[in-house]
Specification:
Blueprint: E1 2-13, E2 16-28, E3 33-37, H1 44-51, E4 59-64, E5 67-68, H2 74-84, E6 85-88, H3 100-104, H4 115-127, H5 143-156, E7 161-165, H6 173-190, E8 193-197, E9 209-214, E10 217-221
Parallel strand pairs: 3-8, 3-9, 6-7, 7-8
Antiparallel strand pairs: 1-2, 1-4, 4-5, 9-10
Bound molecules: adenosine-5'-diphosphate (ADP) and magnesium ion.
Length: 222
């Protein structure tokens, strides 16, 4: 269970404080699939970064499986991000000099890739439909294929939560549908909690929770 308790986030800028999140309270049941919708600038990415401990709230707290993220030491936060969270970004964030297989293994490069990890990475690429693309570099892959590599990379560490920020923002609608279906299937197979930010509301039928952010505040829909 992930609990967001009265979270605010303000950024200090030259012109004063910008209040991006203005008291957000919600929860994400373990193993569920949620979408966060809302117009551009409403604070969606900010909330997702806080959920992944890439940044901390100005006030309020985020409690992940009983641990308040803000109370973890810097080292514990780092371990949390590395082992428990899988990120998928709009712009894929693949390394252009590595092939699909090695991009999938990037989170493990520092620790060393065991043969078992390489085997699982290949299995995951097959699983996301890239069985003939292991040794293609990003420039040799379509946008939808690159995003599937990014998903395989996020899933390889078997994270407890997958955070996806506009994962279909740069994809045509067919590739977008594949990406949503894949996230849903992997969530059901692996039991991860999946939280997806999108303003693509075409694929929202099969989901547990839809949250709508507007101007830093949340209104719950269904
Ligand atoms: P969304 O993802 O819904 O489009 P964001 O969470 O990215 O919205 O941003 C919400 C608001 O916060 C925007 O007005 C943005 O300019 C501002 N913002 C985001 N990050 C920063 C930052 N690091 N410093 C200052 N302002 C920021
Ligand atoms: Mg955003």
């Amino acid at each position: 269970m992930i609990e967001v308790r009265n979270v605010t986030k303000s950024y200090r800028s030259g012109a004063g404080n910008v209040d991006v999140l203005r008291g957000v309270t919600c929860e994400f049941v373990e193993g569920s699939c949620s979408f966060i919708l809302g117009p551009s600038g409403s604070g969606k990415s900010t909330l997702l970064y806080l959920l992944g401990a890439l940044d901390l709230p100005t006030s309020g707290e985020i409690v992940f499986g009983g641990r308040s993220l803000g109370k973890l030491s810097a080292g514990q936060q780092n371990l949390f991000r590395r082992h428990e969270v899988g990120f998928v970004f709009q712009s894929f964030n693949l390394l252009k000099n590595l092939d699909a297989l090695n991009n999938t293994l990037v989170p493990f490069i520092a620790e060393g890739c065991t043969p078992e990890l390489r085997r699982r990475a290949g299995e995951l690429l097959d699983r996301v439909g890239l069985q003939n693309r292991w040794h293609h570099r990003p420039s040799q892959l379509s946008g939808g294929e690159q995003q599937r590599v990014a998903i395989a990379r996020a899933v390889l560490k078997q994270p407890r939560v997958i955070l996806a920020d506009e994962p279909t923002g740069e994809l045509d609608s067919d590739s977008g549908r594949v990406v949503f279906e894949l996230l849903r299937e992997l969530q059901q197979e692996q039991g991860a909690t999946v939280i997806t930010v999108t303003h693509d509301d075409r694929y929202l039928r099969d989901t547990d929770q839809i949250l709508r952010l507007e101007n830093g505040r949340l209104s719950t829909k269904t």
